[in-house]
Write a structure and sequence with these properties.
The complex is a heterotrimer of chains A (323), B (324) and C (350). Chain A is 66% helix and 1% strand. In chain A, helix 4 crosses helix 11, helix 6 packs across helix 7 and helix 10 runs parallel beside helix 11. Chain A is flat, with a radius of gyration of 28 Å. Chain B is an alpha/beta fold and 324 residues long. Chain C is α/β, with parallel strands linked by helices. In chain C, helix 4 packs across helix 5. Chain C has an eight-stranded mixed beta sheet with strand order 7-8-9-3-10-11-13-12, sandwiched between helices. A four-stranded antiparallel beta sheet of chain C has the order 2-1-4-5. The chains are: A mainly alpha (323), B alpha/beta (324), C alpha/beta (350). At the B-C interface, helix 5, helix 6, helix 7, helix 8 and helix 9 of B face helix 8, helix 9, helix 10 and helix 11 of C.
Chain lengths: 323, 324, 350
């Protein structure tokens, strides 16, 4: 990445044209203490500081991050200030359009859509972040361990990943909801179980590359234990790709949840997520389109923001730009 | 054997190669090290030289048990470590350290210099945190770096500075033996001399023993007491370094030494070069007889058929049919 | 008659950690038929100098000032009136220069690099890659190209030339690839060959083969060679004129005898003292005297002499002012205060 300079100082003629007057005191020898032999001009920055600096320069990513932060704040505090509740049915006020009273209007049972979208956001984003976190933990440990042990164990572990990967999410959801009933927890569990496989693959390929590096060999030569090498040498150096994948997993999980709720496998009534809201609104979309518009807009905007952040992070952590 | 700190006998290391054909049952192996024996006396520097692909790095790494040998025996301090488990090796690893070739790749980029240097002490549970910190400062001073460098990261340093960090790390646990794996080949000329002088001083001061692997023949001459020349996984000549350099006996050693350009315009024009034809054969299918027979200028019929045994000639080991 | 003249060249890279100045006012000339050696350590600016001249700088690299004359024709004449220059202007200058050079590079100037594998396309056969230039500049037919390629491959000592033409780079050994690079570079009979660390990646026995080859070819074809290297042994055996670079500047310049026997610059002296040799008559195991410290960081080059912090003779003036280039003889010049006549006179007085 280039710095944002517009002009370059090609030379310094003022300094060059200065006549040098040679005098005996200028010819005194320098002590070793006056010479800076191990000078380093570069300021010291940790890996994360460096990535943050690059992330800050990416306008789209910063916009995404800012937008998401505001969005999350509204989702958390909005319902608290609003006079309405997400399950307060008001049959005298059904299917009203947006107004000062009800910002986004009301639904078929007279519930405030604004508050329901915000509540839906809590559910959807919780699903997104929690399942991405679970995903990260399982995927990193599994992929890292497989790659570190290597050989036959690696082969067997990765074939298991292939199997997990090949079964559709729907199947997990149906199975899990059948056994445990439909709830927030089962949705999160289902999404996490179906998606950690790709994280495991990414971590594994990273660790396999790093395992061949001389610094890993150096740690082995020092007699470091397997756990130490895995955590301090292999995983610590994979932090970049892991964070990027995890961030990009959030919108995927939000989307999966919306889809599951849309087809009726999501959270139970009266709780609402963006997916159930859209699904409910779909039946009377021709008469009350705004009921569909607001939850869909919420999904789209948060997806955009999260993807921008993910993109920004992936270029900030890109080692090829680390020169 | 009593005064040998490290002794290897008929050491072999083969690497399996994946066959290109899917259904082929044929298993090919790279004969990286094919039966090498030598001993290193306490306080001595043994130089191990040869061209790329001759197996010198593999030999060095196998000798310190970074790799598991395919055959032969390794003794360190009189203890057989040929088949020692990782657990058994931990106390041994405290006494033998390694300095790596690539100063850019051998330091963990996510750790600070202080963490890198104190890592061996933490692994072997030596000293308290404060004592470790103190030792790191002492080591930074020994290798000529500034105390405030301790919080910096490896990518902020130049190649020579990083290699000094690598040396400091190797010294942290007071080893008695260091395997130097081409420690200067990635460095600039003026920095190479710095590192060589530093290693020499440290050896005298701390009574260290080095196995010095390198391809730069001139620098190896400076630091080595004895020198061992390798070709295609085999040792061809081994003896006191001054004698080997002034009177090379094996045809390969002669050719190798004559190929090194002399940094002096007059001398280099007088230099008689023995230009070797062709290149090193593949270590997957080494020649049947002498490994050097395909490029040797004085080969005879026996060289193509029988692999020459290592013989003792004038106080050095040599593997060539020319010497009876 | 000079083949290449470079005057007051300054280049820089615009990086996110600030502006780096790898070439700071470099001037040199290459005579017809001579082998010029440019010696320096990594970061000395020796490769960037040649890349600037060849119009091969990376995307964020620019030439800020300089004049380049090749074979009597001025290719670049850039001397901004103000010290500060707008980046966009330099970008345009660079684009124009690169376009201009495309017709010269590969035809009148051949280049070989340290790692042939980066410059050979792994997906194309050797024959195809060798023919590209011939077709482009000389409009030869396939059969003519083939004949020429075989001739060149035999010239660089490759046996089985016909077979090699249909092989891919990865099927060949390192020494063989470097020979092919040389054959490619010489294919168009260039006036100048630029060799950037041509033997650094090779083993000594192969290095000896390649150096021998370059020497004999130079005599046979009579072209000029610029040999960029850090290896003083290679320079001593190949070059008649030598430039020593440090911190983006030329520190000392002279004939091979000037540099190896009459070196005046402390850096050259330090370099010669820190190099080991296998030669028995040169004392074999003499004590090495390394240059202490590390090379300067070209984001913030020292105000005075680039070498001041590592120099054992450093004076106050060296830290305060950049030394002038002092001409010592027809061939020999040195950028050091200690060679300055006034300074020398004062030192003698006391």
């Amino acid at each position: 990445m280039r710095s944002n300079v517009k002009t370059i100082q090609v030379r310094n003629s003022e300094l060059e044209q200065q006549p040098v007057i040679i005098s005996p005191d200028l010819l005194e020898h320098l002590d070793d203490t006056e010479k800076d032999r191990e000078f380093i001009a570069m300021e010291s920055r940790t890996f994360l500081q460096d990535a943050w600096r690059k992330f800050k320069k990416n306008k789209l990513a910063m916009f995404g991050a800012g937008f998401l932060a505001v969005f999350v704040l509204i989702i958390i505090f909005g319902p608290m200030v609003s006079p309405w509740t997400y399950d307060g049915i008001d049959l005298s006020n059904m299917n009203k359009g947006p107004s000062m009273e009800h910002l986004f209007g009301t639904d078929a049972l007279g519930r405030d859509v604004f508050v329901r979208v915000l509540y839906g956001g809590r559910i959807s984003l919780t699903v997104g972040f929690v399942s991405a976190l679970l995903n990260l933990i399982i995927g990193t440990l599994y992929g890292g361990t497989a790659a570190y042990i290597g050989g036959r164990a690696d082969q067997i572990m990765m074939r298991f990943v292939d199997i997990v990967y090949s079964i559709p999410t729907m199947l997990y959801v149906l199975l899990i909801t059948m056994v445990f009933g439909s709830s927030l927890g089962t949705v999160i569990a289902a999404i996490a179980i179906s998606s950690w496989a790709s994280m495991a693959r990414i971590v594994r390929s990273q660790v396999l590359t790093l395992k061949e590096q001389e610094f890993t060999l150096a740690a082995q030569a020092l007699g470091a234990s397997g756990k130490r090498i895995l955590v301090k040498y292999l995983l610590l150096n994979s932090v970049g790709p892991i964070i990027v994948t995890a961030t990009l997993n959030v919108p995927t999980a939000v989307f999966s949840e919306a889809f599951l709720s849309f087809v009726g496998c999501g959270v139970a009534i009266p709780m609402a997520s963006w997916g159930t809201l859209s699904s409910d609104a779909l039946s009377n979309v021709s008469t009350y389109p705004y009921q569909l518009f607001f939850p869909v807009a919420a999904i789209c905007l948060s997806m955009f923001a999260l993807n921008f952040i993910g993109d920004g992070l992936s270029s900030a952590f890109d080692p090829r730009r680390n020169k | 054997m009593a005064d040998n700190i490290l002794e290897i006998q008929d050491l072999k290391k083969y690497f399996p190669v994946k066959s290109r054909k899917i259904f082929s049952r044929e298993r090919q192996v790279v004969h990286a090290v094919d039966g090498v024996s030598f001993g290193i006396r306490r306080g001595e520097v043994l130089g191990l030289v040869g061209e790329s692909g001759c197996g010198k790095t593999t030999l060095g790494r196998t000798a310190v048990r970074l790799y598991k040998p395919t055959g032969g025996k390794i003794f360190f301090d009189g203890q057989d470590i040929t088949n020692a488990s990782n657990r058994e090796l931990i106390p041994v690893k405290k006494k033998m350290q390694i300095i790596f070739q690539d100063p850019y790749a051998s330091l963990n980029p996510r750790l600070t210099i202080g963490d890198i240097i104190s890592e061996p002490m933490r692994i072997h549970h030596i000293g308290t945190k404060a004592e470790q910190e103190e030792r790191v400062q002492e080591l930074l001073n020994v290798v000529g770096l500034k105390p405030d460098h301790i919080r910096r990261y490896p990518n902020e340093f130049s190649g020579g500075q990083r290699q000094r960090v690598g040396i400091a790390r190797a010294l942290a646990v007071n080893p008695s033996f260091i395997m130097c794996d081409e420690p200067i080949s990635a460095l600039d000329v003026s920095i190479q001399a710095q590192i060589i002088n530093m290693l020499e001083e440290l050896r005298d001061k701390l009574n260290l023993t080095y196995l010095f692997v390198a391809h730069d023949l001139s620098m190896v001459r400076h630091i080595s007491d004895r020198i061992c020349v390798m070709y295609l996984g085999n040792m061809v000549e081994c003896g006191p370094s001054e004698e080997v350099y002034t009177h090379p006996m094996h045809p390969y050693t002669k050719a190798l030494l004559s190929a090194v350009p002399i940094p002096d315009p007059i001398r280099t024009r007088e230099q008689k070069r023995t230009l070797l034809e062709g290149e090193i054969p593949s270590p997957i299918n080494p020649p049947k007889g002498c490994p050097f027979c395909t490029r040797c200028t004085c080969k005879e019929k026996i060289c193509m058929e029988v692999k020459p045994p290592v013989k003792e000639v004038d106080g050095r080991q040599i593997a060539c049919h020319l010497f009876p | 008659m000079y083949v290449l003249e470079v005057e007051h060249l300054r280049s820089f890279f615009n990086t996110e950690n600030g502006v780096v100045r790898p070439v700071r006012d470099v001037s040199f000339k290459v005579e017809q038929g001579e082998v010029l050696g440019i010696v320096g350590e990594s970061g000395s600016g020796k490769s960037v100098t040649m890349f600037s001249v060849m119009g091969l700088l990376a995307k964020n690299g620019y030439v800020g000032q300089g004049r380049v004359t090749f074979d009597g024709e001025t290719l670049l004449d850039l001397h901004p009136e103000t010290d500060e220059v707008d980046l966009q202007t330099l970008r345009n200058v660079k684009a124009n220069y690169e376009k201009h050079l495309q017709d010269i590079r590969g035809k009148d100037i051949g280049m070989i690099f340290q790692d042939p594998m980066t410059y050979l396309n792994p997906l194309l056969t050797v024959g195809f890659q060798m023919s590209e230039g011939l077709k482009r500049y000389f409009h030869l037919s396939n059969a003519e190209c083939r004949a020429r390629n075989i001739e060149m491959l035999e010239l660089v000592g490759i046996t089985n030339a016909e077979k090699r033409l249909s092989q891919y780079p990865f099927e060949l050994s390192g020494g063989m690839r470097q020979r092919i690079m040389i054959a490619m570079a010489l294919n168009s009979k260039p006036k100048l060959l630029i060799a950037d660390e041509p033997t650094t990646a090779l083993d000594v026995t192969i290095q000896a083969q390649i150096l021998e080859l370059m020497q004999s070819l130079q005599k046979k074809i009579g072209m000029s060679i610029i040999l960029i290297t850090h290896d003083l042994g290679v320079v001593a055996s190949m070059c008649t004129h030598i430039i020593i670079m440090y911190g983006g500047q030329i520190m000392e310049e002279g004939s091979d005898m000037d540099i190896f026997y009459r070196a005046r610059h402390p850096y050259t002296e330090g370099l010669l003292n820190s190099v080991a040799t296998c030669d028995n008559e040169l004392g074999g195991k003499r004590k090495l005297e390394p240059i202490p410290g590390s090379p300067p960081d070209l984001r913030k080059p020292p105000q005075g002499c680039a070498f001041v912090d590592r120099c054992k003779y450093a004076m106050k003036i060296c830290k305060a002012h950049e030394p002038p280039v002092v001409t010592l003889s027809d061939t020999h010049s040195c950028k050091c205060w200690r060679c300055h006549p006034e300074v020398m006179a004062m030192e003698q007085e006391g």
